[in-house]
Design a protein that fits this description.
Number of domains: 4
Structural class: alpha+beta
Strand content: 5-15%
Distance between the termini: 82 Å
Helix content: 55-70%
Shape: elongated
Order of helices and strands: HHHHHHHHEEEHEHHEEHHHHEHEEHHEEH
Length: 556
């Protein structure tokens, strides 16, 4: 909005323009006596009503003065001067004008005083807005740094993101980030740039590294040779108006340095330096955290591969033992049974009832031993699993479970097809372990088993209406590896594992017992996702409503 020539503010400006130089000198003296540094004195001097008078008297607009206030208000905020303190300091200029105003006619003095108050009011509004802009920019920068830290997928990605965010905050024309080479003492490597490609290495001696351990802000044109030597990019030493050098702190020497290039002379301010130093510390911590995470991921992958190898070795050992049982013990037992049958026939021919009865009893014991051996062989290495697949092996397993379990057993399985060998083995072992546990401990009268494919995962649900158990105690009980073993197998395949059980001693509810849920991706995803649920919680694995209703009816 342009100021009219008959505006009281314009009239006041013309009246004051003749005297403002003298008042400016007095005002600057007051500022220095109050402890303001030269930068703050210069900023406050450009925000007085005397500065406004100079601009308006020259025929420029009030908006030009307010733009000047906004710029210097941001500088004051970065110089860590609060808007309230700046506004109170600007009133000192009004006090200097008081004797001069009293010399005027009362009506004229009143108009001049009102114009001065109007200018001061608008100045304070712009001053507060400028301080808010600075705080908002700082908050946005910190938010961007947090987002960079969370989004980075590698150390290089993290450094590039941090550098771009800091260069944007400083309004630098270019920025580069260098890190000390851990394998080469004295060697520094360019790791990230805002423009171009990050390639290049530099030699930094101890003296140079010592200078780079502090924040530097200088104009290469006017700087001493020692300062110019701190600019790692040779082209920046002569062609820049200003260079800022921000160290990345380390235990004894800097881990690296970030350097910002400005085409014009641009000095850093205290609040800017504080944010940059905090950002440098955060960058180092984020880099260390990311490297630890990467190392941990590598270690976990090594452990996962080792554990998978151990499972393969375990299954191979099971097959070897089953073969040995079949080839050695099984054949020997069959031979013993045949010999006993021959002896039993001989005893009958000899008409020795006592001997015949003893041999018949021994033969029956041998036949039971043969059946138990066959059961062990089938449990150790189910041939149907490798020959016909998981679905057929589970049906055989459940049928054998029905032979020893007095309650009702229901199996629900969709068309599974052939899956990865380790997935089939894991699902089979989990169902096998659940059946063993239910038969030994649950006191259940009904069991529901569901194995289905859904959302590219094989999902297993085992429910019983037994007495339940304390899940935390079961996982921490020494010498018990049933649940822990199942959990580890599922984790290795990147699956989800949950157990929900009623604690012993709590009031029984209809159909309540233990529910185990497992979801294993059909593809090899690798990353584990584990959930252990206790009483009163629910599973993190979705399940269909029709299956829940069917299971509740079966277990009721």
């Amino acid at each position: 909005m342009a100021v009219q020539k008959n505006d009281p503010v314009t009239s006041f400006a013309k009246w004051l323009q003749r005297e403002h130089a003298r008042f400016d000198r007095l005002y600057q003296g007051i500022l220095r006596r109050n402890g303001y540094d030269p930068l703050s004195v210069a900023a406050l001097s450009r925000m007085t009503i005397g500065a406004a008078a100079e601009i308006l008297a020259a025929g420029r607009r009030l908006e030009d003065f307010l733009e000047q206030v906004e710029y210097n208000g941001r500088r004051l905020a970065k110089l860590q001067t609060s808007p309230d303190r700046a506004a109170a300091t600007l009133l000192e200029y009004h006090r200097l004008l008081a004797p001069l105003l009293r010399s005027l006619a009362p009506a004229v003095a009143a108009r001049m005083r009102a114009a001065a108050e109007q200018l001061h009011f608008r100045t304070c509004i712009v001053l507060n807005d400028a301080a808010y802009q600075v705080r908002e920019t700082e908050a946005q920068t910190l938010l961007d740094l947090s987002h960079d830290e969370l989004s980075a997928r590698s150390a290089r990605d993290l450094l590039e993101r941090f550098l771009a965010t800091l260069a944007r905050y400083c309004r630098a024309d270019a920025a580069r980030l260098y890190l000390a080479d851990v394998e080469d003492p004295g060697g520094w490597v360019l790791r990230a740039v805002t423009h171009g490609s990050a390639h290049g290495s530099f030699r930094v001696n101890a003296a140079r590294a010592g200078r780079l351990s502090s924040f530097l802000d200088f104009s290469p044109k006017d700087a001493l040779k020692e300062a110019k030597d701190c600019v790692l990019e040779p082209d920046w030493a002569e062609g820049s108006g200003a260079v800022w050098s921000l160290p990345l702190p380390g235990p004894t020497c800097p881990r690296g340095v970030v350097q910002f290039r400005f085409k014009k002379v641009y000095g850093s301010l205290p609040r800017e330096r504080e944010l940059l130093k905090a950002a440098a510390e955060r960058c180092v911590l984020a880099l260390d955290k990311l490297r630890l995470t990467e190392n941990l991921a590598q270690s976990e992958e090594q452990v996962r591969r080792l554990a998978r190898r151990m499972i393969q070795v375990e299954e191979a050992e099971r097959r070897r033992i089953s073969r040995d049982l079949h080839d050695e013990a099984g054949q020997s037992l069959l031979c013993i049974r045949l010999r006993l049958e021959i002896l039993e026939a001989a005893a009958e021919a000899a008409r020795d009832p006592g001997l015949r009865a003893g041999i018949a009893e021994t033969r029956q014991l041998t036949e039971r031993a043969i059946l138990e051996t066959r059961r062990l062989i089938a449990a150790l290495s189910p041939s149907l699993l490798s020959q016909m697949g998981l679905e057929a092996a589970l049906r055989q397993l459940v049928q054998r479970f029905r032979d020893v379990f007095p309650g009702r057993v229901r199996l629900r399985s969709g068309h599974l097809g052939r899956l990865r060998q380790e997935v089939e083995i894991t699902v089979y072992r989990i169902v096998q372990e659940c059946c063993n546990n239910i038969a030994r401990h649950s006191q259940a009268t009904a069991v529901n088993l569901s194995v289905e494919l859904a959302d590219e995962s094989v999902r297993v649900i085992v429910e019983d209406n037994g007495v339940g158990f304390d899940i935390n105690e079961a996982f921490h009980r020494g010498g018990s590896f049933g649940l822990a073993g199942m959990r580890e197998r599922v984790m290795l395949l990147g699956g989800q594992f949950s157990v929900d059980s009623r604690r012993p001693g709590t009031r029984r509810k209809a159909g309540q017992g233990t529910t185990l849920r497992v979801s294993i991706p059909v593809a090899d995803e690798g990353a584990p996702a584990l959930t252990i649920l206790t009483e009163g919680t629910s599973s993190n694995m979705p399940e269909g409503k029709s299956h829940v209703e069917d299971s509740n009816r079966a277990c009721g």
